[in-house]
Amino acid sequence: MTGWREPAGAVPLRYGSYPVRYRLSLAMLWAGGIALQFTSAYTLPIAVLGFAASIAGWIIVPSAGWRRIIAIGPGLLGVAAMLAGTQGAALSALAVAGWLLVRMRPARSYVVVILPAGLAIALAGVFPQYGNGTIVAGVIGAAVLASTWAAYGLATTKRGRPQPARPPRPAGSRATERSALRERRTPSSPDIGSSP
Fold first, then answer.
1. Higher pLDDT residue, 167 or 8?
2. Distance CA 69, CA 53 (A)
3. Which of 38, 124, 148, 165 has the highest CB neighbour count under 10 A?
4. Which residues contact 50 (CB under 8 A, 6 or more apart)?
5. What is the DSSP letter of 43?
6. Where are the alpha helices (H) located in 4-132, listed in sequence order?
């Protein structure tokens, strides 16, 4: 019996390979979010680059097309809302929900969106000034990362036990051949990167 398999890894891709698209999307989403956090009235070109990188990151993440398109709006809103200060940081939960959607996490894993939202609400009381945005962005970024890993943990277990892999398909079928080809292109172990 092999371990749990990433559901997004089974999606047929029209271009690129799973690991390259996954890592590139992660890099673009994080870079876009960081660029947006360092935006001011004097650095609007950085905001444009941040939005462009974020949109591109959502577009290339390996998942079904409709999931990627739906996740763009909440993902951008969740990151851009932090420009309003600590009070907007609670909307970072939308970016986490978008990530869970594109990664095809089960419904029970969506409970993790409470972590960044709750932490942002608590931080709004401690750091009400706009000048503390770097601290808040760092803490919320860590909360987003922790939430995605927690969702991964919830997805890979079922009632405290690891989920088994899918049963093998009959030998000689076309589905088996496609599955074997897909396995060569997709990882069967947990994702390598900064976020599941």
1. 8
2. 15
3. 148
4. 31, 32, 33, 34, 35, 36, 39, 79
5. -
6. 18-37, 44-60, 65-80, 92-102, 114-126
pLDDT in tens, 110-169: 999 999 999 999 998 888 877 777 888 889 999 999 999 999 999 988 755 555 555 555
Q: Are 44 and 83 in contact (CB under 8 A)?
A: no
CA distance 10 to 62: 10
Is this structure's pTM higher than 0.90?
no
Angstrom CA distances, 135 to 28, 102, 126, stand at 22, 28, 11
Give first-to-last CA distance, the chain, whole Å: 22
Could you give the dihedral angle defined by the CA atoms of residues 30, 36, 42 and 44, in that order, rounded to the nearest 10 degrees?
Answer: 100
> Are 98 and 75 spatial neighbours (Cβ–Cβ below 8 Å)?
yes
pLDDT tens digit sequence for 42-63: 999 999 999 999 999 999 999 9
What letters, b where the CB count within 10 A reaches 16 and e where it falls short, cover 149-161? ebbbebbbeeeee
* Rounded Cα–Cα distance for residues 128 and 29 (Å): 26
